[in-house]
Amino acid sequence: MIFKIDSGRDNLIGYRIEVQVNAEAGEEIASVSTSYENSSLADDFLSPHEVQFNRLFTQVGGYTPNVERTVTVTATNNSGKQQTASRRWQD
User: Fold this and answer.
1) Domain containing 33: what range?
2) pLDDT tens across 45-75, in order?
3) pTM of the model as a whole
4) What is the CATH number of the domain that holds 23?
């Protein structure tokens, strides 16, 4: 699987987080779990399975200078194999 995780300040409050997962040849995406600071943002179960997944989260969290932030994405393919990617940044 190929992951892309983008983050930036939201216009109103918190962060804008965009998650994209692309399946590689011969695989499909069965589910995607996304968390921010170890708290679940979403558990998406894809039926039927898909080859590309994209989701946008807005107004996530808050801003505190010098604090490290983490978004973690775990995708499960149609064979049950999980892969995880994360994005970290500092306020």
Assistant:
1) 2-90
2) 999 999 999 999 999 988 777 889 999 999 9
3) 0.91
4) 2.60.40.10
